[in-house]
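How a chain folds remains the central question behind the approach discussed here. For one protein, we set the task of working out the structure tokens from the amino acid sequence alone. The sequence in question and its structure tokens are set out directly beneath this paragraph.

_____
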Amino acid sequence: MTQGSIDIRKLHIERGGVTALQDVSLSARPGEFICVLGPSGCGKSTLLDALAGHLRPDAGSVHVDGQPVTGPHPDRGMVFQQHTLFPWKKVLDNVAFGLKMKGVPRTERRERAREMLQLVGLEGFENSYPSQLSGGMQQRVEIARVLINHPRVMLMDEPFGALDAQTRLKMQELLLDVWARIRTTIVFITHDIDEALFLADRIVVMSPRPGRIIEEITLDFPRPRHSGLVTSLEFMRLKRHCLDLLHTRTAAEEAPAAQLRFAT
């Protein structure tokens, strides 16, 4: 893997007259798995939208592999919390759709779609419709549809947030297994500390709005990772540290407002 480097410098974004991101700088090595952790409304999704090319910065810059991000591109695949599959298309055709738009011949794109479905554990469901699949299976199709374009960077916006706890853990393990094979760079948005610690090479912790990076945590847990990791002493220590970071910052942000209410 030689592609997929990210360089974000002094990013500032206003949304609806509100500062969503303030002076955010972040870099990622090719093939790195980064989780962005923070409370709701802290600008995590705004950061991802800027990386995807859906938002223009008010100040600062976003580069992937040394090139400025000026708009959406298949090299930066996006996976959302709710799937965006076409309900009228079968699973195989959903996964192959991106290649169809590129003009890839039907036989080739369907063969590559089958390979992607096998990679995410959905061999045998090629002729099913999205409505016939569980939520976890729908997200597997979504991941396969992004991966078929061989993106340099995969952007994931709380993709497992709507799943039950057991399915969520299975999807985390599946994602790590797929990532170990393809080694694309992943930027994964979450507000779940356990999820961030289980998945990432590095966690970027953000403050409440306006979003700023307050700490970066490098994780040395060996790979492959399994569910038993979450009960280890080091995992619990880092979880308490993340909780302290988020709690301390949130309390500091809320204190002036509380004092103002008391004064009035």
